[in-house]
Specification:
Helix content is 27%, strand content 45%. By secondary structure, it is an alpha+beta fold. The chain has one domain: Alpha-Beta Plaits (2-Layer Sandwich), CATH 3.30.70.100. Helix 1 runs antiparallel to helix 2.
Amino acid sequence: MRVARRLVVSGRVQGVGFRFYAREAAAVEGVFGWVTNREDGRVELWIEGDAEAVTRVERHIRRGPPAGRVDAVDVREEMPAGRYRDFAIVTGTR
């Protein structure tokens, strides 16, 4: 079953390689979407794919990269968009 989730991650998540960490986790699990830094210091992700793979990526995100620290992850279930063919790092901030 295909699912989509929007995650907003708080903690020490910018300047520690978090977006690259997320992209690697997504590549390993074969999910699609994007990750970006937000102006408020958090990181936002859209993850879409097989339900079990999305859950595994979410667990990975909750751990974070070695140099980072994840304090909270806000998760919102979304309708799958079906328009993503890869997992992209979106540069800049939102």
